[in-house]
Write a structure and sequence with these properties.
Elements: E1 48-49, H1 52-63, E2 67-75, E3 80-84, E4 90-91, H2 97-109, E5 118-121, H3 134-138, E6 142-145, H4 146-155, H5 159-168, H6 172-181, H7 193-201, H8 214-220, H9 224-236, E7 241-242, H10 244-255, H11 262-273, E8 291-298, E9 301-302, E10 305-306, E11 309-316, E12 322-331, H12 337-357
Helix pairs in contact: 1-12, 2-6, 4-5
GO biological process, one term: beta-lactam antibiotic catabolic process
Catalytic activity: a beta-lactam + H2O = a substituted beta-amino acid
Organism: Sphingomonas edaphi
C-alpha cells in the first residue's frame, strides 16, 4: 500500500467556551478566532422568555445528556425562545447543506442561476461517505439540473450533489457571503465535504479517496495520535461550527420569508419536508398532524465518540403554529442517546403547545 500523506493541524485558536445552560437568551459570549470568510456573531432582537415549564424541561434534558448538547427553540407565533447551551459552536456536519441550499435559492432569486440549469458530474466531482449519486456518475457521467442537485443534497444528504451545487453557485465563498449578507450570525461554513472530512480525520484530500473504501483505508493507516489530535481539535473549534441559537433564528427567518422570495421559501421548506434521513430523531417523536421540515447532520466516529449528531428544522403544529428548532450534540457514546434526547425535546415542545392551545 502506498504511504499516506498526513499532517498535524495546528494554530486554530482556543476552544469556544460553552454557554451556560439557560432558558434566557444570553447575547454575548467569547468566541475563538474565526477562519477567513467566516462571520462574527451578530446581536439579534430580544425575544420573550419561554414558558417556564418548557424551559425547565429542556434544561433537565440537556443536563442529563452523556456528552455536549445545545438546544434552541423559537416560537414564531409567540416570539419566545428557549435555549440550552445555545451559544457554543457545534459541528454542523451535513446541516451545513441547508446554507448551500439557501445560497442557491438566493442566487435564483437574484437571477444569477436557474434551478433548470444543466450540470454534468464526472469522477472528479465525487466526494466521500454518503453519495447515492455516485453510481450514476460512475456509469459514464451524469447530467442533471441544479434543482435536482439541491433536492438530492437536502433530502438524501448526498455529499457529491451538495458540493457540485456549491461549486456551481460560486463555491464556499458564495455561501459565506450569503451568511454574512443576511446577518445570520454565529454560523461558519467550510470548504465542502472533501476538505472538511479529510481535515477532521487528519488527512490531506486526494481524489483517489472518493472511490471504494480508499478514504477509510487511508484514515485507518494514520497513527492514532494523529487522528485523536485532529478529531479533538475539530470538536473544540469546529471549522463548520454553528451556535444552535443562530441556527434556530436563521430557520425562523427562513420560515417568515426574510431570507428568500416567497416562492423560493415555499420550495425550500417543501424540499426540507421531504428529507429521508434522521428517522429516529425528531421525526420519530411527532404526533399525528405535526410536520417536520429539516436537515440532519452526522459526524465521524472516533473511538465511540461522534463528531456531531444534529437535527435542525421547522416543527409545525396541526393548527399552523411553527417552531424553529436546532438540536446539536456531541455524544460521548454512539448508543442512541442523541436521538433519544431529540425525541424528548420534541415531545416537550409538543406537550407545551397542546397544554397552551388545547391540543
Amino acid at each position: 500500500m502506498t504511504s499516506v500523506s498526513y499532517r498535524f493541524l495546528f494554530g486554530l485558536g482556543l476552544a469556544t467556551a460553552a454557554g451556560l445552560a439557560s432558558s434566557q437568551p444570553v447575547r454575548t459570549d467569547p468566541l475563538a478566532p474565526l477562519p477567513p470568510g467566516s462571520v462574527r456573531p451578530q446581536v439579534t432582537s430580544t425575544t420573550r422568555a419561554a414558558p417556564a415549564s418548557l424551559a425547565a424541561q429542556i434544561n433537565a434534558i440537556g443536563r442529563g445528556f452523556n456528552g455536549i448538547v445545545g438546544v434552541s427553540v423559537v416560537s414564531l407565533r409567540d416570539n419566545w425562545q428557549a435555549d440550552y447551551n445555545a451559544t457554543r459552536l457545534f459541528p454542523q456536519q451535513s446541516c451545513s447543506k441547508l446554507w448551500v441550499a439557501v445560497a442557491a435559492m438566493d442566487a435564483v432569486d437574484k437571477g444569477r442561476v436557474s434551478l433548470n440549469d444543466k450540470v454534468t458530474l464526472g469522477r472528479s466531482d465525487l466526494t466521500l461517505f454518503h453519495q447515492p449519486i455516485r453510481s450514476k456518475v460512475l456509469g459514464g457521467g451524469h447530467t442533471t439540473t441544479l434543482g435536482s442537485l439541491l433536492f438530492t443534497a437536502i433530502t438524501q444528504s448526498d455529499n457529491t450533489a451538495n458540493d457540485k451545487l456549491m461549486r456551481s453557485i460560486g463555491g464556499p465563498e458564495a455561501v459565506r457571503n450569503m451568511i454574512e449578507a443576511k446577518n445570520l450570525g454565529s454560523i461558519r461554513f467550510y470548504d465542502g465535504e472533501r476538505a472538511l472530512q479529510s481535515r477532521i480525520a487528519g488527512l490531506i484530500w486526494s481524489q483517489s479517496y472518493s472511490i471504494g473504501d480508499a478514504f477509510y483505508k487511508a484514515r485507518s493507516a494514520l497513527p492514532t495520535s494523529v487522528r485523536k489530535a485532529s478529531f479533538e481539535r475539530y470538536i473544540r473549534d469546529p471549522y463548520d461550527g454553528a451556535a444552535p441559537r443562530a441556527v434556530a433564528e436563521g430557520l425562523a427567518r427562513l420560515q417568515k420569508g426574510e431570507l428568500l422570495s416567497p416562492g423560493s421559501t415555499r420550495r425550500l421548506l417543501s424540499i426540507m419536508a421531504s428529507t429521508k434521513t434522521g428517522g429516529l430523531r425528531v421525526r420519530a417523536a411527532l404526533k399525528p398532524g405535526w410536520e417536520w421540515s429539516h436537515k440532519t447532520g452526522t459526524g465521524q466516529n472516533f473511538q465511540g465518540r461522534i463528531g456531531g449528531i444534529n437535527d435542525i428544522g421547522i416543527l409545525t403544529a396541526p393548527d399552523g403554529t411553527a417552531y424553529a428548532m436546532a438540536i446539536m450534540t456531541i455524544p460521548n457514546k454512539s448508543d442512541g442517546g442523541a436521538q433519544e434526547l431529540m425525541r424528548e425535546v420534541t415531545k416537550a415542545v409538543i406537550a407545551n403547545h397542546e397544554a397552551r392551545r388545547g391540543g
